């Protein structure tokens, strides 16, 4: 699923007794960490494309990318704070994100259509990551994580559909 990274270390402090055992909390935190890495990488890709898009679709894509990266930015806190609520540190460096993300950054400045293609793949990858959290959340009876995964899955599937629609000429 994701590139390997060092295992998350348990946060220090009082014992956590929220009705989810440590093993399940750790698995959920690791899955959420991959979702956070995918989400941050997607945010950065979308913001980069917003800055660098050119061509006849400039205005429409520039505005659409701004809406997408803003939505993505706002989701990051919910994901990271859920990791913290489960008792683990959230990844927060480019190195950690690069090691956890299920897709890579884009080098250079692609054409507008290639930007759309990259974003479709990144949205779909992030949707798959969110979907992979659902069985873990179900097994642990963790509704807050399931809620986050479900919301993110819906956003990424819809956004991928909208981006794919722009490529149908």
TrEMBL record:
Transmembrane segments: none
InterPro entries: DPS_DNA-bd (IPR002177), DPS_DNA-bd_CS (IPR023188), Ferritin-like (IPR012347), Ferritin-like_SF (IPR009078), Ferritin_DPS_dom (IPR008331)
Signal peptide: none
Xref: Gene3D superfamilies: 1.20.1260.10
Entries under CDD domains matching the protein: DPS
Domain Ferritin/DPS: from-to ranges: 32-168
One Gene Ontology MF term: ferric iron binding
Family per record: Belongs to the Dps family.
Protein known as: DNA starvation/stationary phase protection protein
């Amino acid at each position: 699923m994701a590139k390997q990274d060092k295992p998350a270390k348990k946060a220090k402090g009082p014992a956590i007794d929220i009705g989810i055992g440590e093993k399940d909390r750790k698995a959920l935190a690791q899955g959420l960490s991959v979702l956070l890495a995918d989400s941050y990488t997607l945010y950065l890709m979308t913001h980069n494309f917003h800055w660098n898009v050119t061509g006849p679709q400039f205005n429409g894509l520039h505005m659409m990318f701004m809406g997408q990266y803003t939505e993505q930015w706002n989701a990051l806190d919910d994901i990271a704070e859920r990791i913290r609520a489960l008792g683990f540190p959230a990844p927060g460096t480019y190195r950690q994100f690069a090691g956890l993300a299920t897709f890579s950054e884009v080098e250079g400045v692609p054409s507008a259509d290639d930007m759309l293609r990259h974003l479709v793949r990144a949205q779909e990858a992030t949707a798959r990551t969110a979907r992979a959290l659902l069985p873990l959340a179900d097994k642990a009876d963790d509704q807050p994580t399931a809620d986050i995964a479900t919301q993110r899955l819906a956003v990424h599937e819809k956004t991928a559909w909208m981006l794919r629609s722009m490529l149908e000429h």
